[in-house]
Design goal:
With about 350 residues, chain A is an alpha/beta fold. Helix content of chain A is about 50%, strand content about 15%. Chain A is globular.
């Protein structure tokens, strides 16, 4: 048990709650041998579900608390009143070295606010961001921010570019990741001021990536750039738009096949190929947002995810814990911030 | 010819230019009998292409101009220097009654700026918006703004809700369309101030729709609401993200089938169903953004569209011209603005 990965799980988080979170952990426990879960939440709700999920029961410890943070709660309220809540206790487990990573499907704003206070940001970072991995035709793209920071300024976006580039270096094993800024067009004159300002910074500083200019929503799933940087408002809407489009397409496709017997036979013959296809594009398999810029691994699952979706977020946390990504990122960023005078005031205020 | 629909086409617009715009018009001319095109642009470029598109040649008039508006041009420059350009001449044809609608795949900002000056906005409307129709599982959703207004305030968004609702009434033949505001979550506390401000207005005024609250990116293609309102920044990024996801899924699917002989046979057996499916979700078939709030029909095609995509925009313009949508909208909005004291200052400043 000494070398196993320990995941602190906010069992009460998400739109569905323990009925999705615990079966998600069961899915992971079923084919992972070296894992232990710390389940934070209401025993009265957790234990009956745990009784039906035997693999999970064998590898988990329940830490009881009746307190949890609601989806409607403001981050400021969650910060003030959230002590002893399932979310906060799970985050504190990472700070205290009891867990290697925390996973929650709860209130994004509250999770970010509490994680920032408890885990603290890497020196020099103004705001942590949420990053996720998108499947693309030519390879994976890491996109951030996906909803942690609705309003940001140009300097925040430039910092996100650094966070994303360092993550991409580790995740994609490449020396100089290409970085694009999400905008409404690729022309210099387009877009809101904070995006144009970030372009000005990134074109004029050294950072651990190669700045490729503005990219559009159409570029998110091509894999043309390794990192796409956005504020959390546009990033969150892009992420969820893609998720919705995927669901719509999957349902329409199923309906087209089942409406025609010949097509149904064809569909069955294609079943293996279809499964490969589905595995490539099912958004639930790419669920999981990493908070970058904190001293610890904190992974956010979509609030509306089912067990399969949340299990992807847990798997992402396990991988990050195994690979030591966050430690590397923290060191690299701290190093960059102090040594390379990245985002030098002169460059930005010109 | 007296009752035919006359479309003024900016032949030079878009990333590809006349090589995409003219074949698009040919596609429409091939199965539309009562149409006439006014083609604005450089004869030296248009005539050789026209020679290869015989149906179009038979139903079009070329109006020569060497001037065109570049994709990088700022709207202000395009306004100052764009007189006599293909885009401006095409818009003026609508103002002067020579055409029933104008279609351009050119610079969105320039098109909006010139259309506003030439066609003028409906009294009471601060800013026109671009709307498009999205296919959804339960029905079509009209979304606006898709890129005309990067930065808006709460009152602009509330006006977009009115424009969208009136369009939906005409397009979907329903009495009271449901309207949602695009945001990063459905909770009241989430999102940027202009979105929260618009929610406050819409919840407190009478308008020709039923306000349903915040919706997320995932709701764009469900068809759950008839109208989704957004600023042009998030709306444009959502639109293009969906387009990119659709392309990625289509390519992955094709690759999955062709990688496996059994799957390929299956795919062929399913061909008819697949075609129906493709017809339902191909984003090119839903290409075409209508400028709402102007005294005339102006349809914008995506700049990157191919001939099939631009042909959808032309078809949308034809339909709108036939149905007289814009006239109805103009009248309804003018009526609303003056008579119902919609967006009364009291309601907004409370």
């Amino acid at each position: 048990m000494a070398t196993s990965i320990k995941i602190a799980l906010d069992a009460m988080g998400g739109d569905i709650g323990p009925e999705a979170v615990l079966p998600a952990a069961e899915l992971v426990a079923k084919n992972t041998t070296d894992i232990h879960f710390l389940l934070y939440g209401d025993e009265a709700k957790i234990l009956p579900i745990l009784a039906k999920n035997r693999k999970l029961r064998a590898v988990s410890t329940v830490i009881h608390t009746e307190k949890f943070i609601g989806n409607d709660e403001k981050p400021s309220t969650a910060l003030r009143n959230g002590k002893g809540s399932s979310m906060r206790l799970a985050i504190e487990a990472v700070r205290d070295g009891k867990a290697d990573a925390v996973v929650s499907a709860g209130n994004t704003g509250a999770l970010m606010a509490i994680a920032k206070i408890v885990l603290k940001t890497v020196p020099g970072i103004h705001r942590p961001a949420i990053a996720s991995i998108f499947p693309g035709l030519k390879g994976q793209t890491i996109m951030l921010d996906l909803g942690a920071n609705v309003l940001v300024d140009a300097e925040n976006l430039a910092q996100f570019a650094v966070l994303g580039a360092v993550f991409a270096k580790a995740q994609k094993k490449i020396a100089v990741p290409s970085v694009g800024l999400l905008n409404v067009g690729t022309e210099d004159t387009k877009g809101p001021d904070h995006v144009k300002g970030a372009a000005n910074i990134l074109a004029n500083v050294d950072f651990p990536g190669h700045y490729k200019g503005f990219v559009e929503g159409t570029d998110i799933m091509t894999g043309e750039v390794d990192v796409i940087v956005s504020d959390g408002y546009a990033g969150n809407i892009a992420l969820k738009s893609i998720e919705g489009a995927g669901k719509m397409i999957a349902t329409s496709f199923k309906n087209s096949l089942s409406s025609d017997p010949l097509a149904l036979i064809g569909g069955l013959l294609s079943a293996f190929a279809l499964k490969r296809f589905k595995n490539k594009v099912d958004p639930r398999l790419y669920n999981g947002g990493v908070f970058l810029g904190l001293n610890g691994i904190c992974v956010k699952s979509h609030g509306g995810s089912d067990a399969l979706g949340i299990s992807s977020a847990i798997r992402l946390a396990c991988n990050l814990a195994r690979e030591g990504y966050i430690q590397t990122i923290s060191e690299d960023i701290g190093h960059l911030m102090t040594q390379e005078t990245l985002l030098a005031e002169g460059a930005y205020r010109d």
